[in-house]
Description:
Residues 8-74 form the J domain. The protein is mainly alpha-helical.
Amino acid sequence: MEPPDVPDYYDDLGVEQTATAEEVRRAHKVLALKHHPDKLGPGNCGDAHEFRKIQEAFEFLRDDAKRYEYDLNYKSLRQKWNRYRAWQKHQAEEEAKRREAERQAQEEVERQRASQSSWTREARQRAERNGTPTEAQQDQWEAFLVAERMIKERIAAKWTDIRTRCDKKITVRVDTAAQRVRNQTHERLRKREEEIRREIAPFFEEERRKAIAKAIGEVHRRLDARVEEDIKAFHRKRKVEEKRIINRMEDQRKVFYERALMRAAEKEAEEKRKAMEDFQARIREWQEEKAARETVGRE
């Protein structure tokens, strides 16, 4: 019985069909670390194959579109794999039974050989103790050798018969079971495929359209969220910039005000200085005029 053409990606990662993307990622990480070729000795092809199988399953299931189409037929695919695994288990059990039968037969042969060897050894020891064998003993010994050869031949024939019967029985069972499972599987698959085609034909395009619309809606939602976040960031930045500009303008206003006060004070001081000079000039003129009048009066 051949395995299904399409792999059971969920079983390869050890997760259920309902697993989330995070659960799939976590299962892949654990299995990848366990079967990574860098952690294994050279020539360990079994685990390298497991690693490639794990990578393939993860790369497939992480693609939402591929996973959606895969899930549409996963129920029938899972049934195929369950039947194949049941057949594998049956094969392993039959092989274990065959090996157990061979082991028991081998133990029986070894036991009879040990018993025969013990009997032969005792007979030889008795012959050696009795010295030179008589003619009757010689005949008895030859008869014993003939009997020993016949026993060995019977043991070999029994062993061959046991193996032949075991092989035939297992072969017949396996072939019959495999053919029955194959026929039943093909018939069920054919019917199930027809049912699936009839079931999904009216809805496949609608479901695909919904999936695309959902994906587009998700993209729009993410874009709107990004735009909203950018707008908020812009407003925050603008407030900070406005505050900085206001503070700078306030500092400049203070500087301008202080400079204006200084210019006003300087102007006022200059006006006072000029007024004082003018006042002093008038006093000098008045004094000169007074002195001139006094001089004229004395004359």
